[in-house]
Amino acid sequence: MYALTQGRVYTGHEILDDHAVVIANGFIERLCPLADLPSDIEQRSVNGAIIAPGFIDVQLNGCGGVQFNDSPEAVTVETLEIMQKANERSGCTSFLPTLITSSDDLMKQGVRVMREYLQKHPNQALGLHLEGPWLNIVKKGTHNPDYVRKPDAALVDFLCDNADVITKVTLALSALSQK
């Protein structure tokens, strides 16, 4: 356990001076006035730096010179590690790696890679964002029309079975059947 001190704390609601952020087991345990900080806690001065919550990017196809969805060779734990390091440099502490409309095989690979990454690096990525494949073909944007399609039971079952690593799915209501 240690405390970050000598910084300006931005909570999202207040700007606090003369406060400490207490860290325990890699997580923020509490925020308290310096006067209330127990004397036995190690203090780490941030020398006047700003202490603030990190940004969260909910749709990140790539950064740091890599793309998560260029090819099967790009959908790897290593790609996600590069993306995380690039994010941290700009204050983004968590992200949703985003796989655009692709083949079933690449989507399944993305899910496997996300699971492996989360086991290796908990508390960084917040899960996988599947951008498609169930989009409106008229409003597909840059998505490959060969992969824009209606849902099929096998893929839906696979995604449901892996919902613990899939945080977000972008879909068009027009792509769904009335059933």
UniProtKB/TrEMBL annotation:
<protein>
    <submittedName>
        <fullName>N-acetylglucosamine-6-phosphate deacetylase</fullName>
        <ecNumber>3.5.1.25</ecNumber>
    </submittedName>
</protein>
<dbReference type="InterPro" id="IPR011059">
    <property type="entry name" value="Metal-dep_hydrolase_composite"/>
</dbReference>
<dbReference type="InterPro" id="IPR032466">
    <property type="entry name" value="Metal_Hydrolase"/>
</dbReference>
<keyword id="KW-0378">Hydrolase</keyword>
<dbReference type="GO" id="GO:0008448">
    <property type="term" value="F:N-acetylglucosamine-6-phosphate deacetylase activity"/>
</dbReference>
<dbReference type="InterPro" id="IPR003764">
    <property type="entry name" value="GlcNAc_6-P_deAcase"/>
</dbReference>
<dbReference type="GO" id="GO:0046872">
    <property type="term" value="F:metal ion binding"/>
</dbReference>
<dbReference type="Pfam" id="PF22643">
    <property type="entry name" value="NagA_N"/>
</dbReference>
<dbReference type="GO" id="GO:0006046">
    <property type="term" value="P:N-acetylglucosamine catabolic process"/>
</dbReference>
<keyword id="KW-0479">Metal-binding</keyword>
<comment type="similarity">
    <text>Belongs to the metallo-dependent hydrolases superfamily. NagA family.</text>
</comment>
